Amino acid sequence: MEQNLLYLFFVVVFFSVATAIWALFRLLFPERLSSERLTGQEAGLEQQWVPRIAALMGPAARLTLPKEDWMKSRVRRRLMNAGYRREEAPIIYFGAKTILAVLFPLLVFIAAIVHVPEQMHILLVLTAALGYYTPNVFLIWRVRERKREIFNAFPEALDLMVVCVESGLALDAAIAKVGDEIGQSNAALGEEFKLANLELRAGIGRESALRNLALRTGVDDIDALVAMLIQADKFGTSVAESLRVHADGMRTKRMLRAEEAAQKLPVKLIFPVILLIFPSLFMVLLGPSILTLMRLLGPMMAGQ
Q1: pLDDT tens-digit series, residues 28-70
Q2: Which of 188, 232, 272, 290 lies most in the core, judged by the most C-beta atoms within 10 Å?
């Protein structure tokens, strides 16, 4: 009984800590940081709390923060892909890794006062590893969700860019226009185009600004668009025609992806149907017959 209560305590503590971490990251780094979605009061609260929490987690972050080539590391790129560009983001991320790596074993040690499990040292090591890699799992999930959000809005942005360029706008003006328009429906993609426009206005070369756009998003389709625009700019081909051809190719690619997803759907439905729907269906169809047979044959079998 005590062992079951201990396992239940571990489960409750794990989900409580995971929920607290998720709520903390949602508070510090909202999914949409555009000015259209944040009021002045919310932005002020964010500006106020993020530096304070980063200052509290700073000593813990120094224990795991990379010392060399940090700007070129994979974690830095993942933070950019997830939309975490504040200077406090790496401090909070690595601070959370250190704190959770200590907090999870500490909770296990406190719970061991009630009942000491077998192989306590192995359990402490496993919970420390779990706490250390929990921010990694959250960051990977956040990157995947943001890429999916950008990918879903990219076709509309590409069509809008084609219309802008064919109407006579230059590529830089088209990027600015797309950032303003698409930001009303998709803040993540609109923010990326606005950052690219700011880099162009700051004097960064078009090729560097476009490559930074592809690097920040991490979406393959945007990377292909950037490569096409750079090639068109280098060889002097028509940007409008290149965008039109690329948009047609992307439209065909989206159609093929939709057909592929539709073909995978029956396979994905096999297990839910077998495990969830068929048992209920059999119970409804055969249940009355089985009860009738048991009622009729029960006395006969009891008499034997």
Answers
A1: 555 444 444 444 444 444 556 777 777 777 777 777 777 666 6
A2: 188
CA 48 vs. chain centroid, Å, equals 25
Place of tokens 């162009």: 200
Of 264, 272, 216, 258, nearest to 85 (Cα)? 216
In 3D, which of 145, 48, 52 has the Cα closest to residue 92?
52
- Identify residue 248 by its one-letter amino acid code: D
Which amino acid does the sequence have at 286?
Answer: L
Name the residue with tokens 């989206």. 254
| 169: three-class secondary structure by DSSP | coil
Under 8 Å between Cβ of 218 and 82? no
166-203 burial, b for 16+ CB within 10 Å, e for fewer? eeebebeebbbbbbebbbeebbbbbbbbbbbbebbeee
State how far the Cα of 200 lies from the Cα of 172, in Å rounded to an integer: 7
| CA pair distance 134, 122, nearest whole angstrom | 18
- The span from the CA of 17 to the CA of 11, in Å, is 10
- DSSP assignment, residue 68? S
For residue range 233-258, list pLDDT tens digits in order.
888 888 888 888 888 888 888 888 88
Q: Round to whole Å and give the CA distance between 97 and 100.
A: 5
Alpha helices in the chain (DSSP H): 2-28, 40-61, 74-81, 89-111, 120-166, 171-182, 187-201, 206-217, 220-235, 239-272, 278-303
